[in-house]
Specification:
Blueprint lengths: L2 H20 L4 H36 L22 H51 L11
Length: about 150
Amino acid sequence: MSGADHELRKELDATLQTRRELGPEYESELLDSFLEKVEQRLDTVVDKRVRRRMAEEQMVAARGGSVGTAPQPQPRPASGLPDGLGARLGLAVASLVLAIPLSAIAVANAGLTGLVTCWAGIVAVNGLQASRSWFSRGGTRTSDFD
């Protein structure tokens, strides 16, 4: 677990503890505050990726290559997982970890309807990620372990 992820985990624990102490009256404000921190973390990660990609394109252009050339095959990550599998696995694990407090909040506020809505959103997010990886391959589905 990276330092930033550990910090988010501590923030989640603090938010849940504060909710227990203050009661459900402040639940929406606490949830908004936590989600804002998660959004800031995601923005930071996306910004880093964009800057890295732009730097890579500038390096290619500086070496006389065309930015629009076909990408070179990338080596498999050190984890041994095929490209993209780590990201999908990470999203699935994060979804399940966040599903616990989100389910509790949904049930506390809207009962069974809230729980069903919460899980429909979780399934939709994971389904969208799976369909993105499916269609990003140009419609030709190959095994993740090729």
